[in-house]
C-alpha cells in the first residue's frame, strides 16, 4: 500500500471518536456567544468529524505535519523491493496513530531514522496537539536534541526497571545537582541524563571536588528520588482516589471499536480489494498456470473415439482423480501467502483496528471470484476434450464440485497457516494434512481395503466427497447404463469397483460437505486469529547482567562476562593496527541520478519521464577525515551513498567517480571498501563472533596468519563492545536475538573487520541511545585516526557527536549540495558560512549546530528568504575551493600505479567453500523448526504408509495388488517431494538477503556460496532417506535382498534430493516465496500427471512422451517398481489373464528390468541438473530492487 492509503485505512478503522459530539457542542456555544469562527479552522474541524469517509482531511493534515506529502503516493516497500526510506517508514508508523481520535499516545522511539529538524517539527506538533486537546502523550526517545528535549513538560528517567526521576523537566538538573552531578556547558541534557547512570561515564560529571567521588548506583538514585520533594509530591498525587462522579463520560470506552461492524467489514473489504489489485500478478500467474496445466491435461487424456467400457472408464477415473488432486494441491500455495500477511494483521489486532472476523471474511470472499474462474477454466478446457458425458447439467455439476473442492482446499490451508504461524511448521502441517486427505479418500486405497478400525476416517476428507460426487456425476450418465456381462449396468459396476456406489442424491451431499468444510475452516481461521498470538520479542543480554540480577545464565546465554571501559586506550591506534592497509581518496564530479517517474506521481499531474534524485553532486572523501553526510529526510543521502558504492540496481547514473585518481572499477572497489547498511541484515542463526569471523576469513588477504585474524576479530569485538555477548545468536528482528542497538554495532563490526580503506556508514547511530551512539562514534573516530576514509549519514547527532566530524556534506531535498566543507572548532566555520547569508538568524547559546543548520536551511526558510541555498553554495568561494580540491585529488599520482588493490577474491575457492559450508552448517543446525519439521513429517508419513500398506509387497496376486504398491510408491514420491520442496523455499529466501549483502562486498563467488548451500543439505537428506527406508522397507513387505535394499534407498535419496534442489532452483528464479510456491505447485501437477501412475507409459500420447521422460517422478517410479519386482516371474491375474509379474510390468507400465542401471543413472542426473541451474540463476539474477 502507499503511504496515503496506509493512513487513510488507519483513520477509517479508528473512526472519528467523539469529534462529532464535540463539534455540535462547540457550534452550540459559538451561537450562544455569537462567535464567528475562522473559516479554515471551522472547515477543518467539521471535515474530520464526518464519519465514513474513504479519504479524510485529517490524513492530508498529518501527511503535511510529518513531511510525507512528497512520498504519499509511494509504496511502503520491503527488503527486496525498496520503497520509502527508513525515516519515512518511521513517520508512517507515527502517523497511523496520530490520524485517529485517540487521546492517549504511547510512542516508542518514534525519531529513529529521522533528522533532528523533522523530529523537532513532529514533537512540536504533538506538544501543541496535547496542550490544545488536553491529551496524554508518553514518548520514548533515544537521542533527543536539546531543542526537542525542551518541548517536553515532564521527564521519566528509567534504569534497570526503576524510576530515577519522574517530574518536571525544569527541575531535573537541580535534582541531580543535589546528588552531586552537574551538566557541563554545551552538553545536551538528554545525553547527560543517560550517561550519568553509566558506571563508565558518571565520574566526569561529579562536581564536588572537595569530596571524594563514589559511584552512585541506580538503587541510590531511586531512593533519593523517593525521599525528595518531587518524589513525595508524586506519591501523594498517586495516593488520591479517582472521582468517578466528576469524570467525563467520554473517558470510558465500552467498545474496542468506534465504528459499526458493517463499517469495519466494508473498510477491510476495500483494503483486501486494493491488495488484490496490487498482488494481481500472483493471482493472474496462478490462473495462467492452471490454464496451461489444463491444456496439458486434456491433451494427455485426449481420445477422439473413447470406448464406453472398463478400459475407457479407467482413463475417465484417472483424469477425474488427477483433477481432484490438482485442486487439492493448488491450495498449498495459501500457506506462504497467508503467513506473509500475519505480522501486519497482529499489529492491527493489537491496536484494535479491526477484529479477526473483519480480516478473515473479506479475505475469503475475495478469493471466490478466482476460485470460480479457475474452476470454470479447468472444467471448460477438460470436460469435452477428455470426453466426459455430454450435457450442460453434468458440465455444471462437475464445475460446482471443482469449485467446492477449491474452496475447501484453500480454506483448510489458510486455517493451518493461521494456527502454525511459522513457515516450516505450516509447510509440514499442510503436507501431512494433504497426505492424510489423499490416503483416506479412496484415491490410492479403496475404503474396503483400509484397516477396519480406520474406516471412519474415510468420511473426514473433502477429497472423499469430491471423488464420490465426480464419480456419480459421470458414471450415472445415460451412456454408462448399458448392461455388462455381470448382469448389471456398466456404470454401477464401475462405481462398485471403485467403492463409490451411492445413490444420485449423494452428489448433493458431497457438494454440501465440501461447503461445510469451507465454512468450518473459515470459522477456525477466525478463532485462531482471535486467540493465538505471535511470539513475543526476546532481548539478548550478557551473562554478567543476569548474574547482577541474581539469575543463573542459561546455556544459550553463557557469554563472557567481562566489561570494557569506555575510556580504555584506543584499540585502533596505528601501533595496534596489526593488519596494514592503503589509504585511498574518493572523488566524484557532476553525479546525477534519475529513475522512472512512479505511476502514482505521474497521475497527480504533468511530470517528466525521468525523476531526478541527485543533481550535479561534486565532492571528495579523504583519508583521515571523518565526513558527515546530512540533510532532511528525503534529501538523497542514502541515494548518493548507494550511487557512489555501485549499489543501485535500477535508474540512470551520470558523472565520474575516481578512487585514488583512477576510475572506479566496481569489482575491485568492493574489496577495499565497506558499507554499513541502514537495514541490519545478518544470518539469524549465527552468533555475533561467528558473523565477524566469517567476514574476516573471507575479506582479509589469505596471506595473513590465522592467529592475527583471530586477534583482529577480538579487537573489533572489544571496540564495538560486543565481546560480552559474542556467543549470542543474532536472531530475527522483533522476535528474538540481538536488540536494535546490538545489531547496529554488529553491522559496523562485520565491515570493520574487513580492514577496508574506505567505509560508508548509513545512519550508524540510528536506533541507539546517546551512550551507545557515543560508543559507536568513538570507535568510528579511532578508525579514522588510522588513516581510513569514512563517510557517515547521520540524522540526530548530539553536539558531541556532530562536532566529532571533520567535514560536512549537507544536502537539500532534490539531491543538491548546499554546504561541503570543514566544520571547524565548535562548528565555527559552518556557523559563519550560514550566518553570513542575509536574513539567517544567529545561533543561540548552547544550541546544537546540527539542529540549527537543518532548521535554517529548510524549504520554509528558503521561501521566506527568497533564496536557493544550492545556488548560493555554487556561487560561493567555498564551492570553488572544493572544486579545485576535487580536481587535484582526481589526478593520478606520478609513476607506477599507487593503488595495489587485492585480487578480486581474497582467498582461494576451496577456502571460500569451507567457510561458506561452515556458516551454513551452523545456520541449519540451529534451525530446529526447519530440520525437525522435515524429520517429523518423514517419521509420521512413513508410519502412516507402514500401517496402510502393511505387508502388501509380498501379497501380490492380481493387477489391483500391483496398482496398490504402485500407488504407495506414487503417493510417497509425491509427498516427499512436496514437503521438501516447499520447506526449502523460505530458507533460501531468508539466506538470499544476506547473500546479496555479502556478494556485493566481494566475500565469495556466487557459485561457491550456492555450492555450499547444495552440499549442506546432503547430510540431512541422507538421514531422511535412511529413516524412510528403515521404516517402510520391512513393513511394506519387500524382498530381503541387499541389492534391492540399496536400490530402494538410492531412489528414495535421489527423490528427496532432486525435489529439494528443485525448490532451491525455483527460488533462484522468483522474487519471493509467494511466486515460488505458485511455480512449485505447477511442477507438482506436471510431475503427478506424467509420473506413470495416472497414465501408464504405453498409454501416454506420443506428443507428450518427451514430457514423461523429462519428469523425474516417472523415472523414480520406474526405478522403484522395477528394482523390487522387475525380476519376479511369479504368475498373477491381470485383466482376466494369467501372466508373469515382470511381464505385466512390461506390458502395462512399460518397465523393463534390463534398463534398471540406465534408470538409476538418469535419476541421479536430475539433482545434478537442478543444482547446476540453481547455481547459474543465483549468480545471474538479482531481485533486490534498490
Explain what this protein looks like in three dimensions:
The protein is α/β, with parallel strands linked by helices. Helices cover 55% and strands 8% of the residues. The protein contains 46 helices and 16 strands. The strands form five sheets. It has a six-stranded mixed β-sheet, with helices on both faces. Strands 6-5-8-9 form a four-stranded antiparallel β-sheet, with helices on both faces. Strands 1-2 form a two-stranded parallel sheet. Helix 30 links the parallel strand 11 and strand 12. About 3% of the residues have low confidence.
Helix content: 40-55%
> What is the rounded distance between the termini?
18 Å
Q: Strand fraction band? A: 5-15%
Mean pLDDT, all residues: 83
**Structural class based on helices, strands and sheet pairing:** alpha/beta
Q: Please summarize the sheet with the most strands.
A: 6 strands, mixed
Q: How are the strands of the largest sheet arranged?
A: 10-11-12-7-13-14
Gyration radius from CA atoms, angstroms: 35 Å
Number of strands: 16
Unreliable residue stretches:
536-542, 548-575, 901-905
Estimate the global geometry from the Cα principal axes.
Answer: globular
How many alpha or pi helices?
Answer: 46
Membrane topology: Multi-pass membrane protein
Transmembrane segments: 281-302, 322-344, 365-387, 424-445, 505-532, 931-950, 970-989, 1010-1033, 1045-1063, 1075-1095, 1158-1179
Subcellular location: Membrane
Organism: Platanthera guangdongensis
